[in-house]
Design a protein that fits this description.
Elements (H helix, E strand, L loop, with lengths): L5 E5 L6 H10 L4 E3 L2 E3 L13 E3 L2 H9 L3 E8 L2 E6 H9 L3 E6 L1 H11 L3 E7 L3 H11 L4 H15 L7 E4 L3 H17 L1
Parallel strand pairs: 1-7, 1-8, 2-7, 3-4, 8-9
Antiparallel strand pairs: 3-6, 5-6
């Protein structure tokens, strides 16, 4: 499978990676967004094929058994995320580079796959307490899911040093600027 350059943006949920990815896409760079697959329910503002490829857990696991994913992970119980091989084909066929908005383990797996053609950026919150405040203010989490996301974030933060670059998102505009600079430099290399 032929691939262009891969930009991997990973972070704990609520750290700002999706906002940063959207801003990077607006800057050009010949990047196209890789739409991940998930078994989690679609949120009200999300669109099939733009935000995610939504599927049942059984459908997702069937695709895993057929080796249709480059990477996948069960991030929470019965909640799977992954990158379909056809998604990379779709983007690289057009001659575009790929930008990923993925969980931390997925990001590391993509970095392993892409090797020197991949730049892995970890977006870190300034603290777990600030991350919790962001998740509360987002108003998309139940008390139980909030607790799970914070525990998961603590675990994911332990992988930050395995990424090529760590950007602390304590100021969104600064984090966007730093991310764009890193991507521009990598794409020119």
């Amino acid at each position: 499978m032929k691939t262009g350059k891969m930009i991997i943006i990973s972070a704990p949920s609520g750290a700002g990676k999706t906002t940063i990815v959207k801003s990077v896409l607006e800057a050009g760079f010949n990047l196209e967004f890789s739409v991940s697959a998930t078994s989690r329910p679609k949120r009200e503002h999300e669109t099939e094929g733009r935000d995610y490829y939504f599927m049942s857990e059984n459908e997702f696991r069937d695709k895993v058994s057929l080796d249709l994913f480059i990477e996948w992970e069960e991030v929470y119980a019965h909640c799977l995320y992954g990158t379909l091989k056809t998604e990379l084909d779709r983007i690289t066929f057009k001659g575009n580079n790929i930008i990923f908005d993925v969980d931390v383990i997925g990001g590391l797996n993509l970095k392993t796959y892409g090797k020197e053609n991949a730049l892995a950026i970890f977006i870190a919150p300034p603290s777990l307490a600030e991350l919790e405040n962001r998740l509360i203010n987002r108003k998309t989490e139940s008390e139980d899911s909030l607790r799970k996301r914070i525990a998961r974030a603590d675990y994911e933060m332990s992988f930050r040093d395995k990424f090529d670059i760590v950007i602390i998102n304590d100021n969104l505009e600064t984090a966007i600027f730093q991310t764009r600079e890193a991507i521009e430099s990598f794409l020119k290399s």
